[in-house]
Amino acid sequence: MSDGLPDSLIPYDEIVQEALRAVVGRVLGQVAEAGGLPGEHHFYITFKTQAAGVDIPQRLIERFPDEMTIVLQNRYWDLLVDEERFSVGLSFNQVPSKLVVPYSAITGFHDPAVNFELRFQAQEEPGDTPEIHDEAENDGPIAQPVEDGSNVVSVDFKRKK
């Protein structure tokens, strides 16, 4: 039935993606204001390492040339949040590092404590192919997420041509 519908002239998918990324910013802002994570909450944040505005050490770009996942749980510091990005201090192999990540670079956000997850479309250039990289993780214990499918929001818009 929808095959006869024209492409939308309103970029709904982009608007929804932007709104959901704002959820990540709001959550991180509340954590920054409170001075720490409440209860058992902790976050896995996946982002494109070479997206516009990302500022991470070169050694991390070399190790994760396409995408990496960080964990905000026990050992992080200087979480700063604004309307466009967040920055945080994390340790990788016992080396302290500052990361600056715009929300537009985020491809995933997961809080395993309540099994809440958001997935975002990557804004990749045509012809880009992700390189294989090491499993992403910063220092600290990693909890295993519960896979019951509750509270998962995945946005994947496909336009009919």
TrEMBL record:
Q: Organism's domain of life? A: Bacteria
BP-aspect Gene Ontology terms: proteolysis
Q: Where is this region: Disordered?
A: 123-148
Keyword entries, A-Z: Hydrolase, Protease
| Molecular functions (GO terms) | peptidase activity
Tell whether Chaperone is among the UniProt keywords.
no
Q: Name one matching Pfam family.
A: SspB
Supply the InterPro entries for this chain: SspB, SspB-like_sf
Q: Under what name is this protein listed?
A: ClpXP protease specificity-enhancing factor SspB
Q: Which organism is it from?
A: Sphingomonas aurea
